[in-house]
Amino acid sequence: MFSAILMSVLALVATQQAYDPLACSQDDIQTLKLTVTDSRREREIPVLVYLPARTSPAPVVLFSHGLGGSRMNNAYLGRHWAGRGYAAVMMQHPGSDESVWRNVPPEQRMDALQAAASAGNYLLRVADVPAVLDELERCDQSTDHPLAGRLDLTKVGMSGYSFGAQTTQGLCGQRGLRGSRFTDARIKVAIILSPSAPRNVSASHAFGGVSIPWLLMTGTHDVSIIGDADAESRLAVFEALPPGAKYELVLHDAEHSAFGDRALPGDRLARNPNHHREIKALTTAFLDAYLLDDPAAKDWMDGDGPCSVLEPEDRWRAK
User: Fold this and answer.
1) pTM, full prediction
2) In what order do the strands lie in the sheet with 30-38?
3) In a domain, 8, yes or no
């Protein structure tokens, strides 16, 4: 009896030690560019899909870019998630994408970006997501599409950065004025890079009803000159979330650009190359734990796993 118990304990320890969210194979990852047509809104949504090498149905992670971005952004995450067996679906939102600034004189770009950070574009973004999910379902069920039979749409997560973080919040349980919601029940977990609390309602009203697992990431200098989001408003989101599979990482000396691909104009601090390593590790473990229900990943998340990748002054907490 004792021997059996000992063997079980040793097996559990071995499993915990073996789990590594940074281990991945990016060989033979496929990329596929699509344009989703939402005929109801007469709107076209460009999409880039990173597909894992295996052909069995892959769980799906949607990604929403920041203001002025595109489907090409955050490739470091798309490729890593695909290397872990996920289909990473990077969406592009017309009206708040790179078209806002690309052909605008440099001295006018800030004004153009400010104008694009609007409530109207937010509403367009949150409507883009269910349109993309609907199209993915059609593609997966078809007989002749490159995505046919490649997606497991019973396991869908969503992530976003900056304006994409607001988009993700809106699709994943945030309440607006008078209790309005854009929640899509097909999305089971949320990863939010640079969250922000709304200014027109309290954080407790906005986030107190969130019912799915959320992982939040921000930085000690995560301030945005567009939208006036500051470190305090970003931290307020985690404080307002109800307990149960909610996590927050605060990267020390990280500016708003830390979660993106490159530095932004006005950055004052050097980028820390370990930050992307931390982001890849923690987002992957979170997806494995709460989208795939992997017990080893949950043990890693709730044990000493995060400490193995974090910088000494980073802050990590869960509830």
Assistant:
1) 0.93
2) 30-38, 43-51, 87-91, 58-64, 151-161, 187-193, 214-221, 246-255, 315-318
3) no
